[in-house]
Amino acid sequence: MDLTEEQVRNLAVRHGLDSGIIRPIMDLVGGHPYLIRLAFYYLVRHDLPLDELLSKATEDQGIYGQHLRGYLAIIQANQESSTIFKQVLESTEFNQLTGREVYQLESMGLIKLDGNNIVSRYRLYQDYFTKHL
């Protein structure tokens, strides 16, 4: 379950971060609790500038690299899931709402329903997997 913007704002305050960082991070990772916390950790503990965090987010050496590579390995191990996910990433109107692969991708948190269409859950996933699949 994603954090709300208010919850992310409260978390940012607890980390001593400016509220101006919330929107750019949420535009990238939505309210994903782990990905939000990881960003805040690097911003505070490693004094990583926000622009650097954002510019390297979809790179394998970026702060989300391990998370993304783990999902990439799972997807690549299943040709059908890889094919379906590529179709989701490349289409603005993917609406094949059934199938084991769709369920797998949804349960992994990589895709979501948007009306009658299936879309990538976060821009981070859209950007990374478009490059790697």
Task: Report on this structure.
The protein has 133 residues and is mainly α. It folds into 2 domains: 5-55; 66-132, no CATH class. It has helices at 5-14, 22-29, 33-45, 50-55, 65-76, 79-90, 100-107, 123-132; strands spanning 111-114, 117-120. A hairpin with a 2-residue loop joins strand 1 and strand 2. The two termini are 26 Å apart.
Compact description:
This protein has 133 residues and is mainly α.
In the predicted model, the low-confidence regions spanning at least 5 consecutive residues are none
What is the averaged pLDDT score? 95
Rg measurement, Å: 15 Å
With strands numbered from the N-terminus, the spatial order across the biggest sheet is 1-2
Oligomeric state: single chain
Care to count the β-strands? 2
Overall number of domains: 2
Largest sheet: 2 strands, antiparallel
Q: Specify the number of helices.
A: 8
Helix content: 55-70%
CA-CA gap between termini: 26 Å
The run of helices and strands is HHHHHHHEEH
What overall geometry do the principal axes of the alpha carbons give? Answer: globular
Give the percentage of residues in beta strands: 5-15%
Structural class: mainly alpha
Pfam families: AAA_35
